[in-house]
Amino acid sequence: MAVDAANTPLATFTAQATTDEPKAGERVWALLADRQALRTAEGVWFEPEPGEIVKGGTLGTWLGPVANTSDPDLYVSQRYGTFAYALPVANGRYQVRVYLAEAASNRQAAERRFDIAAEGRPFAADLDLAKQPGPRTAHLVEQTVTVADGTLNLAFSPIPIPNLSAAELDIRDPDLKLLKDRNAVVNAVEVRLIEKDPGQKP
Question: pTM of the full predicted structure?
Answer without folding.
Answer: 0.81
